[in-house]
Amino acid sequence: MHDYPPPGALPVATVSDAMERFGVADGIGPLWPGATFSGPAFTVWTRPGDNKGLHAAFETIRRGEILVVNGGGDTTRALIGELVVQKAKALEIGGIVLDGAARDLAELPELGIPVFARAVTPAGPWKTGPYRTGVTVAVGGVPVSPGDWVLGDHDGVAVVPRADIGEVIDTAHRLIAGEAERRAANQRLVPRD
Fold first, then answer.
1. pLDDT tens digits for 5-54?
2. pTM of the entire predicted model
3. C-alpha span between 28 and 98 (Å, rounded)
4. Is the Cβ–Cβ distance between 64 and 85 less than 8 Å?
5. 52: closest CA among 43, 42, 44?
6. How many beta carbons lie within 10 A of that of residue 80, not counting itself?
7. Is 84 marked as binding a ligand?
8. Which of 53, 164, 172, 175 could form a disulfide with 44 if both were Cys (CB 3.0 to 4.6 A apart)?
């Protein structure tokens, strides 16, 4: 079992740089400013516009896990809204990532569960399935397996394969130290006349 850094401890951009710019979920971002998360992935693969699999996931997801959903990139039906996020809050999950849409944007920030999605729409979901849980999925063009480290901040979402977590964390810390040196050098620059 890995120790996953807490939300906000490492910037998504730096983690992506530590993976040679791989691992960033395309087109998926926070639904409100300040939303951050970090933790192990719990995966769901569902038919576009259908959230039956999300409800099934809540029967086995553990505290702190990140619900990562491949909804096929569909933006015509919201996979979650206020009531689903209330359930996620009661279960103390770490966040939700949707390759799909969400709704109830006015209420979601008040619930405190970070939600990252491709879009927002008022149209509700179907609830008929099919779905799969605990399988490798694709989210924003990035493969995500159960237990992979998933983190999100204002820049978006990054996914670190479970086998690479320690190496990526070490590399990210080295990059942060190098950036601090470059910032200090930039502040010493003198304009030319």
1. 999 999 999 999 999 999 999 999 999 999 999 999 999 999 999 999 99
2. 0.94
3. 7
4. no
5. 44
6. 26
7. yes
8. 53
- Residue 83 is assigned to a ligand binding site: yes
Q: Concatenated DSSP letters for 37-51?
A: EEEEEEEEEE-TTB-
CA dist., res. 119 & res. 181, Å (int): 38
Phi first, then psi: give them for residue 116, nearest 5 degrees. -120, 130
Q: How far apart are CA 18 and CA 12, in angstroms?
A: 10
Q: How many CB atoms lie within 10 A of CB 187?
A: 7
What whole-number distance in Å separates Cα of residue 28 and Cα of residue 26?
A: 6
Residue 104 among known ligand-binding residues = yes
Q: How far is CA 28 from CA 70, 130, 152, in A?
A: 11, 23, 10
Which domains occur in the chain, in start order?
Answer: 12-187 (3.50.30.40)
